[in-house]
Amino acid sequence: MDVNEIFKNLTKYETANKTNLYLSITFLCFDYDVIHFLSAGSNVKFDELYIFIDLSITMCTLYIDELANFEQYGYIFSMSTDSVPYIHTGAYCSILNNLTALSTSLVCKENSKNETNLRNFFFWEECDPFEQLAELNLQGCRENMYNINGSFIQSKFPNLQRLGLKYTNLTLSEMTFPWTNEFFNITDLHIKPLSFNKKSDVYGNFSLQRSFTIYDCILNFSNDVTLVGYIFSISINNNKMPNLADTIFMKVRGLTVLDLSNNDISEVDKGAFIMQNTSMLVQLILANNNLTTLPLDVFDNLSNLLALDLSSNRITKVEQRYFKYLTKLESLNLKHNSIKRLPYDFLASQINFIREVFLAENPLENLPLNVFYAPNIQSVDMRHCRINASGLQPLLYNASYSKMEKNKHMFLPTFYLSQNNIRKIPISSNDSSVSNFVAVITNFNLNLKGNPIDCTCLTPLIKVFEVMREYKMSVDEIDWKCQYPSELKGRLMATIKLEEIYCPIYSHSCPRECACFQRYNTSKLIIDCRNINMTSLPLVMPAGRLELWFRNSSLLEISPRDYMENVTFLDVSHNKINRITATTTKALGNVSILKLDHNNLTHLPE
After folding, report:
1. Model-level pTM?
2. Quick check: is 341 in a domain?
3. Mind listing the pLDDT tens digit for each residue in 524-556?
4. Are residues 528 and 464 in the same domain?
5. pLDDT band at residue 196 under the 50/70/90 scheme
6. What DSSP letter does each residue of 100-165 carry, written as one string?
7. Do residues 570 and 485 both lie within one domain?
8. For 96, phi and psi rounded to 5 degrees?
9. How far from chain centre, in Å, is Cα 320?
10. Between β-strands 502-504 and 515-519, what pairing exists: parallel, antiparallel or unpaired?
């Protein structure tokens, strides 16, 4: 590979922008081939353009000394080697003296069939110390983890600020992080990801933020790793940590982000999050563990916490006491737990700052009313819970209409209630539920998709929609669809008219196994005998004008009945009727709609 060819096309850039340039170069080999970096052609001259090179090499064997051919154009400040079988280090790797970030992984048995490519050591072990290196990411193999020697790594990377370890074994020696009291100051924010000229023993606004990441490693924090001093973020994932002890972070200061997801944590000590400058923590992630409960005061010292993630645990009960001092909390994630009910004061202390709440995939039966009063709320997710009409009643009957109206939102926040068990919207025409309902749907986008909504007897709700239209209030955004009855299935509730509505009634003359209804504001009755087994029409029906629904009822004949003169609609389709007599036809003289399709009829009477 002629290095000069890589840089030939950059001369145009120099003409337009005489400045520093960040350049990422990636090489990918097949079958672990050897790659050589040469300078065969004439050099490209750049008068004022200086290049910072981020070099990435995957599945290639290379010679470190040949990287010197890049120096005529700039320097390699960041390097990534992924599944590289062998790196010839040459003269102590001096060409990488300016390296500030290194990410490297071993060739693993699961990725290579050729065992000659397998090595359980990294090229940097043969190099002189990397004085300028600030960020190091090491990845061993899942089946053959790389053994970490704490003192050896410290000697190779004496000024390390960021450490990431994956598939490594930390049980063979003790390690303290960070092991340096010096900070790197970022002198040029335009160079990505790192460019340093100065060191300082005091953390400042331009100091590189330290981080510590451990993923799927073998370790025991009590014996193997000590965290002490300033660390901006800590991520410990996919490790076996059944107990989160109160000694792990007690010597850490300046911690802002703490991710402890996927660790099988089942117990958390009361003082687990007590550390130096505890109030600086703004994000805490405890997702995908085995937590069933927490000490009530475990979060009391996290007064500046903005985001708390407790999703995918086995928590059965939530107390507002957990969150009492988290008054600045903006995001709370309790998704995929086993919580059945929320306390009445849930999120009462967070009402001024809360923006998003995730409660989906819990067997929840009630709503968090306080979020409806939150001025900054953007999203509440309660999908796949167990909310039904009873769960909606406190919102429509007990919630404060004035509080909801007080907090008008520029963009409607979304309350996701899809895939629950809501069959009815529990409002009536003459009570406070109407004003609360209007406040909810004008201040929130209430998502009810996937609920078994029954639009039978929807009269109060349809009247509310009509009144809203009269007052020029939009109902077009309400996309709630009927699931029942079958005549209205798939219809938007807001498009249904009052004359389409019918409500159940009790009548001693209603045929057994059938259901009887009355259409809104009329005396017309509906006798619904669909999908039941009866071979002939009932002898008796309720008095009044009748709609008879006998679709798919196994009828064999239609014999005359005394009530037929009151029938205005008759559906006997999808039955086994083979004839209709003239007497029957005459008795049905007032029928305006008659459905006879899908029967065994060969002719009709004249």
Report:
1. 0.87
2. no
3. 999 999 999 999 999 999 999 999 999 999 999
4. no
5. very low
6. -EEEEE---TTT-S-GGG--SS-GGGGSPP-TT--EEEEE--SSSPEEP-HHHHHHHSTT--EEEE
7. no
8. -100, 20
9. 23
10. antiparallel
Q: For the chain, how many structural domains are there in total?
A: 2
pLDDT tens column, 179-195? 988 887 765 433 444 44
280 vs 279, residue with greater confidence = 280
CB–CB of 452/483 below 8 Å?
Answer: yes
Is 547 inside any structural domain? Answer: yes
**Angle separating helix axes 459-470 and 433-443, nearest 10 degrees:** 60
Q: Could you tell me if 150 and 134 are in contact, meaning their C-beta atoms sit under 8 angstroms apart?
A: no
- Phi and psi for 152 in degrees, rounded to 5? -70, -45
**What is the pLDDT confidence band of residue 65, given thresholds at 50, 70 and 90?**
confident
The CATH code of the domain that includes 414 is 3.80.10
Q: How far is CA 218 from CA 83, 144, 147, 420, in A?
A: 21, 11, 9, 42
Tell me, what's the pLDDT at 92? 64
SS3 76: strand
C-alpha to C-alpha distance for 450 and 471, rounded to whole angstroms: 30
Q: Is residue 203 part of a domain?
A: no
Same domain, 398 and 490: yes
**Is the model's pLDDT at 344 over the cut of 80?**
yes
Strand partners, 102: 79, 136
Residues 472 and 547 in one domain: no
Position 204 scores a pLDDT of 56
Of the three residues 475, 500, 525, the one that is the final residue of a domain is: 500
**475 and 512 assigned to the same domain:** no
**Residue spans of beta strands (DSSP E) within 359-509:** 379-381, 414-416, 445-447, 502-504
My answer on whether 495 and 531 are in the same domain is no
> What was the pLDDT predicted at 436?
83
Under DSSP, is residue 438 helix (H, G, I), strand (E, B) or coil?
helix
Q: Are residues 455 and 553 in the same domain?
A: no
Question: Any alpha helices (H) in 304-458, and if so which ranges?
Answer: 389-393, 401-406, 433-443
- Give the span between the Cα atoms of 203 and 172, in whole angstroms: 32
Residues 478 and 519 in one domain: no
In a domain, 58, yes or no: no
Asked which of 484, 500, 516 is the last residue of a domain, the reply is: 500
**404: containing domain:** 388-500
Tokens of 283: 């994000």
